[in-house]
Amino acid sequence: MSSTAKFDDYTHIVPPIKTFLVGGGTAGNHTVTGITTADKILGVSSMHIDATSLSTVAFTVADLTSEFTVGAANTINNTSGTDTTDALLLVTYADYDA
Known about the structure:
By secondary structure, the protein is mostly beta strands. The chain contains no helices and seven strands. The mean pLDDT is 88.
């Protein structure tokens, strides 16, 4: 996952970096309130906790950044990508129109 945003070519100002946590689901549209098509996704991580008992807990993290695009205002999309049902998605993006 990239952690740096490119300077704006005109203003030379780095846009605000925002993070949003959203429940996963089947591949397709996921709501990220505030993101727009002018923004750039910097990272999407899927986090899943599987607790079969108090002594057996598995925590899985996957970098899914390459699967996601900004489909429309307030929407990211990974059609034909990974099913993230029962996981949380941590979305980090550069807010170019803040």
